[in-house]
Amino acid sequence: MIYIALLVLLLGIELIYFKIADRYNIIDKPNSRSSHTSLTLRGGGIIFPIAVSIGYFFGYVSLEIALAVLLVAAVSFVDDIKPLPQLPRVTSHIIAVGLVFYDLELFSESLWLLPIVFVLLIGWVNAFNFMDGINGITVLYALTAIVSFSFMSINEPSLPILITMGLSCLVFGLFNVRKKAKTFAGDVGSISMAVFLGYFMIKTILETGQLGYILFFSVYGIDAIITIIVRIKNKENIFQPHRSHLYQYMANEMGYSHVLVSFIYAGIQLLINGLVIYMEIKGNLSYFFMIETLLVLTLIYIWIRRLVFRKIIQHSS
After folding, report:
1. Residue (of 161, 139, 158) closest to 14 by Cα position
2. Where are the transmembrane segments (predicted)?
3. Chain-centre distance of CA 53, in angstroms?
4. How far is residue 232's CA from residue 250's CA, in Å, rounded to a whole number?
5. pTM here?
6. 34-68 residue pLDDT tens
C-alpha cells in the first residue's frame, strides 16, 4: 500500500510539474541535431531527484547521496531553462562525486584509486546525459539498471530506494515512452539519474569485490566510447550535441520507431545483466569473463554500426 500511495504521489507531482512547465514555457524546441520534430515539455525527469528527496525523508537514502543528486539536479534544471556557463555545471558534478566518495568511505582507500574512480564516474554521468536522445531510451535503460541492482542480495537493504526510483521511472515512462512524447527528461533528469546509478554501481562493486558488475552499463558505455572515438577521428567537438550514436542513426536515418530502438537497447542490457548475475551465482564472474564479454560486445557493436551505415548509404543512393 505504501508503494501504491507513493506511485500516486509521484504521478500527481509530475502532472503538477507539467502545469508549471507549460505555464512558464519550459519546452524543448527541435533543431538540426534533434531526433524529434515537435515542441515537447522539458524537464519531466525532475521526478527522479524528487523521488530521491522522498527516499531521504523516509530514511531510504543517506544525506550525502540525497545532496549529491539534488545539487546536480538543481544546477541542471537551471541549465535546462537558461544555459549556464560550464563552470557551475562542472563544479556541481565534482562536488556530487565528492559526496558519493564520502558516503562510500572512498577517501580512506588508496590514493591511486580515487582519480580512477573519479574519472570513471564523471565520464559515466556525461555519457548517460549525452545518450538521452530518443523517446524512452533514458528511462528504460535506467529502469533496467534499477531492476538488475534490485535482484542482487547484496542490495536488499537498499530495496526501498531502488523501488522508489523504479516507480519514478514508471511515472516518467508514462509520458515519455510513446511515439509522441509529452515530456523529455532534460539534464535535470538524466544527470541526476546518472549520479544515482553511478553511486549504486560503485557501491555494488565495493561490497562484492566484483569489477564485472561494470557490465551492467556496457551497452551505453560501448556506444558512448566508440561514438566519441569516431567523432574525434572526424575532428568534431565531442562536447557539442550531435546525432552520431548508433541508436540515433537507427531512429533517424533508418526510420525505426524510437520506442522500439529504446526497448532493443534496454532489452540487450537486461540480458547481459541477467548473464552477469547468473555467472556470479555460479562463481564464474571473473576479470577474464568481463574482458571477454566487453570485447565480444564491442565487435558486435562495430559490426552492427557498419551494417547500419551500409544500409543508410544504399537508401540514399
Report:
1. 139
2. 45-75, 110-127, 134-152, 158-177, 184-202, 214-234, 255-279, 285-304
3. 18
4. 21
5. 0.93
6. 454 557 899 999 999 999 999 999 999 999 999 99
